[in-house]
Amino acid sequence: xxxxxxxxxxxxxxxxxxxxxxxxxxxxxxxxxxxxxxxxxxxxxxxxxxxxxxxxxxxxxxxxxxxxxxxxxxxxxxxxxxxxxxxxxxxxxxxxxxxxxxxxxxxxxxxxxxxxxxxxxxxxxxxxxxxxxxxxxxxxxxxxxxxxxxxxxxxx
Length: 156
Description:
Layout: H1 12-28, H2 33-48, E1 52-59, E2 62-69, E3 76-78, H3 82-90, E4 94-96, E5 114-122, E6 125-134, H4 142-153
Antiparallel strand pairs: 1-2, 1-6, 2-3, 4-5, 5-6
Helix pairs in contact: 1-2, 1-4
């Protein structure tokens, strides 16, 4: 296992194509889920300088804050509430170009402007979500969705 990243300059697609194999290698030999989630959050934050990157884990009928990188965050989110709770409820990725336009958005930070949330699914059951916020409007697109869903499909 390598605890360092080789970050390239380039467009978003090229960065993901370089980063994902490195993340897979980083978590490949580690069985502890929390350790892997922590390293994934750190790698994404370092590579893309996102405003906030983290995981929420399903505990009963709530998402509970897990490993993250960035400012302090909301600790618990109900199913169906905010972007994270909605992605969990629908079991699908949600991209929000402007969080101010999302009904029921939970503003953990007023600096967050756009968001992408990817459910973590094993055997058709969501066990958590990857939440990434940007301080820029309309930051996330289909490239992010494609590569982040691929990444999340490899998290056990």
